[in-house]
Design brief:
With 413 residues, the protein is mainly β. It contains four helices and 27 strands. The chain has helices at residues 26-30, 44-55, 201-204, 320-323, and strands at 2-6, 12-13, 15-19, 40-41, 60-68, 71-78, 82-84, 87-91, 96-100, 102-108, 113-120, 126-137, 141-150, 153-154, 159-174, 178-191, 210-223, 234-246, 254-266, 274-285, 297-298, 324-325, 327-344, 349-364, 376-387, 391-399, 405-412. The strands form five sheets. The chain has a 17-stranded antiparallel beta sheet that branches. Strands 1-5-6-3 form a four-stranded mixed beta sheet, with helices on one face. Strands 2-4 form a two-stranded antiparallel ribbon. Strand 10 and strand 11 (113-120) form a beta hairpin.
Length: 413
């Protein structure tokens, strides 16, 4: 939560005082402040923007800025920076939970650096290690690293495989509106041997079982949202181009082009509900039949059109040809309203919202043959829980026109 106020008699700002940052370095806060403090007139719009920028750091549960005696007072309450997060994943095919411990630090060394370490010790075993510094030096130049080593199961073709990904990332942003990011990495996929009586034996062995790629990616964002964790206005445009260079002689290179645009509107009545719409596209090259199984996309489920199961056997026959694809176009409408206002509970800010949603999408195995008249749709209700530093966790109950209903669990930062 955050507050802002000012002394009506104090119209000038000539200095800054920061209070409450026991761990966070002063310069981490100062570099987000845009309000002039050289005997400048108070501008409440810039003050509010300063509050939002500090809140978007994700390390404070309360921010209060006010002007008194020409001093720009910045009072902050730091969130808990080190916290355990249980890793939990449910595999519907095996009716099995994968779980293990994880630990996150959102403000390493008091410099807004983030580090995450987790391990699945039961089920689909493996580990995750990540590090991110959003402002290393210069013009918001960032640096990140991610390492994954997992042993998951492909629930659509019922085989186990090892997935390894190591990548580094860096980029910069211009006034936090135009953001550019670059990634380089290595990806390895090894499909384990399956018995000859396996349901998909011939289909799986019709393609290589081992994939090694050098990966690269470019990402651009145009971001004018007011708050990242729970926007009430503005928009986010995201364009991503990924390239997977096949090291093996028997695998092809892959290109992936993804776009996403999301717009937010706040209504000025009663409890100020927020309406948003999202338009998302994804296109992959080469054609579907030449892609590895791991590159297939699935239109139904929590990431795209809610209200559909991720289990192939539970997908209606009429929409089965549209679910599995490599090219997709999705639109999502959502109305969000506060149930419990976000409030600081002693270094932890918690809030709860209710949501109504409608999703619709279409897909194709060939980017030249998209038919927008053949689509699937889902709708439903949900809850979104906000926790400072962690982000948001959503649980949605989705329905589809075929009389099915499915529960979807998502988290986001």
């Amino acid at each position: 939560s955050f507050l802002f106020s000012f002394d009506k008699e104090a119209s000038l700002v000539d200095s800054i005082i920061i209070n409450g940052n026991e761990k966070t370095k002063d310069y981490i806060i100062i570099r987000e402040i845009k309000h002039p403090h050289n005997n400048s007139p108070l501008d409440s719009v810039i003050l509010m923007d300063d509050v939002n920028r500090l809140y978007n750091l994700g390390i404070f549960s309360n921010i209060d800025i006010f002007v008194e005696n020409n001093i720009y007072n910045i009072n902050v309450i730091e969130s808990f920076n080190i916290y355990p997060i249980p890793l939990v994943d449910y595999n519907e095919t095996k009716d099995e939970l994968s779980y293990g411990p994880a630990l996150a630090h959102s403000n390493l060394l008091g410099m807004n650096q983030k580090i995450f370490l987790g391990s699945f010790i039961y089920g689909d075993t493996g580990y995750i290690l990540g590090y991110y510094n959003p402002w290393l030096y210069g013009n918001r130049i960032n640096l990140g690293f991610l390492a994954l080593n997992l042993n998951p199961e492909n629930i659509f073709y019922n085989y186990n495989y090892r997935f390894i990904l190591n990548k580094i990332s860096s980029g910069f942003s211009l006034d936090k509106i135009h953001k550019y990011n670059y990634e380089l990495g290595f990806m390895k996929i090894d499909i384990y041997d399956i018995p000859i009586d396996h349901e998909y034996y011939h289909e799986i062995y019709s393609k290589p079982l081992k994939y090694n790629y050098f990966t690269s990616a470019f990402n651009y964002q145009h971001d004018i949202r007011d708050i990242y964790i729970d926007p009430t206005k503005g928009h986010l445009l995201n364009i991503s181009l990924e390239y997977f260079y096949g090291i093996n002689d028997d695998i092809e290179d892959i290109w992936v082009l993804s776009t996403m645009y999301k717009k937010f509107y706040e209504f000025d009545f009663i409890s100020n509900p927020v309406f948003s719409y999202r338009i998302e596209t994804k296109n992959k090259f080469p054609e579907f039949d030449r892609l590895p199984f791991s590159s297939y996309e699935y239109l139904g489920g929590e990431e795209f059109v809610r209200g559909y199961s991720s289990l192939p056997d539970e997908i209606p026959d009429k929409v089965r040809p549209l679910i599995e694809s490599s090219n997709m176009y999705v639109i999502s409408l959502e109305l969000q309203n506060t149930i419990f206002k976000r409030k600081d509970y002693g270094r932890v800010e918690i809030g709860l919202d209710g949501i109504l949603f409608f999703d619709m999408g279409t897909s194709s195995k060939n980017y030249k043959s998209i038919d927008f008249s053949h689509n699937i749709s889902g709708y439903g209700v949900g809850l979104k829980l906000f926790v400072s530093s962690i982000g948001s966790i959503s649980i949605s109950l989705g329905f589809n026109p075929y009389g099915q209903q499915h529960l979807h669990l998502m988290d986001s930062q």
